[in-house]
Amino acid sequence: MTMTMTSGAAQRPAVFGDVDRAARRVLATNWRRCATVPAAGLYPHQWSWDSAFIAIGLRHLSPVRAQRELESLFGAQWRDGRVPHIVFDPHVDPDAYFPGPSFWRSASAPGAPAVPTSGIVQPPAHALAAWLTYRADPAAARARGFLPRIYPRLVAWHRYLTARRDLTGAGLVAFVHPWESGMDNSPAWDAPLARITPAPTGDFTRRDLHHAAAAERPTDEDYGRYVRLARDYRDAGYADSLRVHAFAVEDPLGNALLAAGEDALAAMATELGRDPRPHLAAAERLSAALVSTLYDPAAGMFFPRDAHTGALIRSGSVGGLLPLIVPGLPVAAALIATARGDRFRLGQACPLPSYDLTAADHDPGRYWRGPGWINTSWLFWHGLRLHGETALADDLRRRLLERVRAAGFREYLDPLTGAGHGADDFSWTAALTLDLLRAA
């Protein structure tokens, strides 16, 4: 993979030059023709929000490659606007990952693309990534027609979420599978998942355990619930309604990314000579709905809401802090105070733990049940900068870079010891490290 270095490389701190070189090697190794796999063994296809974060790092090395990363993903967009969480590589053994193409059966779904995909989605980080990618080299983007191509696809993606996934009429988007949240195995999903009867273990073969220890991955029982939910959605023709979805939650992070994405779409609309006001209005509506529906002032953070019961799920996921990425968020100071408290220990724990450090069921090594991830810490760092907390942002940035240097580009890390877990040479860890290295 050949990459043309941009002027950002000159801003690289010399003390982290070894980290920079290693991160570039990871992204080069994980590139597959037109997109980047998250990790060569465990994740051999293209994942949706992974590609968004990967583009954010790639833009510093090759803005054109970053554009192609997003264009490849949106080339598999469904006619209804949804962006699938996996785009399957036809050059990879179809049994290399479960659930694979034969499980999702996208070819028989109305409006699906020619390339095989999954039928569920992931958090909408793409508009933010596209705007950052454009800004890395506007001249190259204009020469390729990047914004005129990607903008209408992003609009259709957001329209799908706001029109098809507002299952309660509250103005918030619901995720209908834990995998859609990006935080697949979070304790935040335990209560609504408990209503789901797991698929028998004989109905599926777990490929993830070929690449990671069972102690670091979801249990067979939870995996059976994931399979049941995905199968029911598939068998319903990927129709969206509360009658179809036994699991449906309005998630703070997903809705915050959508609001921040609308702000990014407004900037793109202005660049294209279009009216940005509809996007700004959408961002304002989403932000207001987030605060009025999902924010708990006593806890100083946001909680998901069960769309079936209307009750908040009072579980301390890091997602409850990440609406900090929303411009003008009125409760930003409270989120930062919560992050600095005992539950998340900003300034000590690094990366930010995915789940409340004081909770009895915190597990620092199991997938999304306690370990820290570079992408969620990057989002919080982005939010700190957005809200003028530069000293805290700089400290978090330095700690993250030190953790990566010590542990390598692991999928996730123990937030207190820094021990690495999950996949090695994980692409968004490498990509976001490159972005942190070049932060002005």
TrEMBL record:
GO biological process per UniProt: oligosaccharide metabolic process; protein N-linked glycosylation
InterPro entries the UniProt entry points to: 6-hairpin_glycosidase_sf, 6hp_glycosidase-like_sf, Glycoside_hydrolase_63, MGH1-like_GH
Domain Mannosylglycerate hydrolase MGH1-like glycoside hydrolase: from-to ranges: 43-429
Residues spanning the signal sequence: none
GO molecular function: Glc3Man9GlcNAc2 oligosaccharide glucosidase activity
Taxonomy, superkingdom: Bacteria
Sorted UniProt keywords: Glycosidase, Hydrolase
Keyword Secreted part of the UniProt annotation: no
Record-annotated membrane-spanning stretches: none
Protein family (similarity comment): Belongs to the glycosyl hydrolase 63 family.
PANTHER family: MANNOSYL-OLIGOSACCHARIDE GLUCOSIDASE (PTHR10412:SF11)
Annotated protein name in UniProt: Mannosylglycerate hydrolase MGH1-like glycoside hydrolase domain-containing protein
Source organism of this protein record: Actinoplanes nipponensis
